[in-house]
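Hi there, hope your week has been kind to you so far. Do you reckon you could talk me through the fold, stretch by stretch? Thanks so much in advance, here it is.
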Amino acid sequence: MKFSLRRPRSPLMIALFLSFVLLAGLFMGWISGHVISDDNAFRSLTDNIFREEVSGSMLTLHYSLAYPEKKQISRPSPSLGTISADMDRTYQKYEQYLQKLKSFSASRLNRENQITRDMLLLYYQTQLSSRDYPLLDEPLSPSLGIQAQLPVLLAEYAFYEDQDIADYLNLLTSIKPYFQSLLAYERQKSEAGYFMSDTTLNRILEQCSAFIKDPENNYMLDVFSRKLTAYGRFSKKEQTKLINCHKKILLTGVIPAYQELMTGLSELKNSGSTSRGLKHFEGGTEYYRYLLQSQTGCYLSVEKIQQRLAAQLSEDMDTVQKMLKEQPSLLPKLTKGVEINDFKPKSALQYLGRAMQKDFPLLSTTDYEVRYVHKSMEDFLSPAFYLTPPLDTGSPNVIYINRANSHSNLELFTTLSHEGFPGHLYQTVFFGRTQPADIRYLITSGGYVEGWATYVESYGYRYAASLLTDKAASDLTALMWKNRCINLCIYSLLDTGIHYQGWNQTAALRFLQVFGIRDTKIASEIYQYIVETPCNYLKYYLGYLNFLDLKKKQQEKSGSSFDIREFHRKVLTIGPVQFPVLEKYMQ
């Protein structure tokens, strides 16, 4: 006989237990069928979009993935592709993406997938809004055009495997047909009345001339040789063979391709109008609205953007006037220029990494390199820039410095805060360590990325104060930051005036004179740059204002419990999305 101290369960309890088990099973089945599977299916969709988009270009693929085969992605033909006004197939593909994305209910997705869904929906809808203006895009410009960026992208083409070297050499051979398609596109623009002004054309030709000026000593030869040595998997004999092959391709393929591009563009001289904004072209106003949205990630009307810019400009100018009234000695110091003693870029980045920890979430040790722009390209590239690493390696993180720019050490310090810590490098690494979907690396928001880097510059100026010996260092750096903001705001307002309201050069010069910019040569250069790069200043400054406004809203909402590090953590974790999406998920 067996004894038990437990009471036998009643039939009712057994029935209730069995019912609970049945309901639990049904609930878990529902969860599996409606929630887990929806998230998996959505992630599968975005992974497929990523594979399709990233493999469309060898250059895009290489800068996104060091080892594509590990993600079951086949390398496309090592070609730069072509440029065409016919984008119908691309737009059809975007419409298909939208249909598939909309088939998922946001309520059945987890937070990460909801953010990705909202970001992608807005991105593809925005891209489709440009379909009626195929000839208003301009891939060429003196500073940001493809002819200026291509040598840098190819020079920085990393060698992870032997195949990368073969792909690189093949890409060089594809420059000529790529430029030929570019010329065909520019001829279409010319015939339709959309070709660039002679002023812009001459600046592009000058930039191309600088690149091909001394073919036998072109900087790409030296860069390739050094990269091959660093790769270290070939014998001296094999290296010599590859170096000779590379030089032959450069001299017989790349240089002639640039010469042919210059000849073809020169033939189109006088077919464009004088330098003017998008407003003067058919469809230009609508295309400018598209550019604003796609470049800045801001979806306010142009009029509301102008109002926001004007309000900030007034506020900052009032602040500057009060500071100078209270401390007149600041102005001559600002005019003279401020220097940081014993300045070195690497030590400055190390200092920034330490100083930022009180305002930004901690990031474990990150490897990075500081390199310098080759002398032959110094006149045509930015003061500094950061190259993002492939998503599957997270390295190398490279910051380039242009030594041709005659900036003070303090200005270079704040530039490093923009490009490094807590700017681009920090933001990229932080978001990458949240392990987002691959598509989040490929499709981002320029307004978020550049707006964040501009926003954190204010902290860079603040951190720099402790490195200065001046007793009024904090006020001096604050004044310098306000001065920078005012300049960016003026240029942003000028951008809307030129491209949305149709200001000509005379109107632009009058506007700049109001703010003390009376040097005609400088004012003309500002006008010309904005004509050639619509929305570029807005990408930085309007992006910055969006972060400023978002922080203000969060401070008002949280009151005394507001935590700046937690605010920054939320922003960085959501990642580079358009501002309507960022604001939605910050709530």
